Amino acid sequence: MPEAAKNALALIVSIIVVHIFYVGYVWPESTALIEASRAAAQSAPRNIVVILKDWEQEISIILMFWGLYLIFEKSLALLRERYLFNVDLLDGAEGKDMTATLATLEALPNKIRRAHLLRTLTASLRRFLITGDVHSTSETIEASVDALAQKQEAENSLIRYLIWAIPAIGFIGTVRGIGEALSQADQALAGDISGMTESLGVAFNSTFVALLISIVLMFLLHQLQRLQDGVLVDTQEYCESFLLNRIGVIRDPKAGSN
Asked: What are the Cα distances from residue 42, in Å, to 37, 182, 189?
């Protein structure tokens, strides 16, 4: 399944699951608690369902689960490829028959060939077979790693957008709640402040939930970026250790005899 389709499916599943949770639990429980507090002439309790009851919080939670999926899906994809750094994919490539080595790499299963390390390795080896120049091959490795870094940065843009959008949605709830509270100023002056306090609760609850979610997602995004940076460094070191050392011996036979 294409990545865009999987991401869209994850969003749809998040919407359905969170909405079912709200319809089945959050809204009935929060309504019962608020009605009970009104009957007792008290303000609404600081219960978790009361804090989460508004639609801004629902949207924030939906986006949170979607962001969690995007982060963990990318992290698992990188972790699944980690074992390749412990395998000598150029084993038996000593000598000058690098064409056969390239053919062997290109014959690997498509799932393995899509790995970042394999893409860099095959591109660098192909450049060496064309130019026969170790320096040009080294530049290809650096260019491939830089391209991978830019690709990862672009793929993380949606997660960054979610981390920005969630507090913005919370701010919308803040503005809405304050607006509702100001519209009930006459009732508050008459002595009934229950409506105003409930509206102010909407304002503060939406901001609280949104900021809390954005803090969690930002932390997880930084962990993902650390993992991605580690892959870039390991890819560079692997190609230098396993590829450049071998082709350096090929271009300088005296080095191999020493």
From this structure: 5, 20, 18
Residue 50 lies in a domain: no
Quick check: is 79 in a domain?
Answer: yes
Mean pLDDT calculated for residue range 186-203: 65
Q: Is residue 36 part of a domain?
A: no
Q: Is residue 95 situated within a structural domain?
A: yes
For helices 116-131 and 194-238, the axis angle rounded to 10 degrees is 40
pLDDT tens by residue, 30-76: 888 888 877 776 766 778 888 898 899 999 999 999 999 999 999 99
Residues 87/239, Cβ–Cβ less than 8 Å: no
In the chain, the number of structural domains is 1
Q: In angstroms, rounded to a whole number, what is the distance separating the alpha carbons of residues 159 and 150? A: 15
- CB-side neighbour CA atoms (13 Å) of 111: 4
Domain that holds residue 153: 70-257
Side chain identity at 183, as an amino acid letter?
S
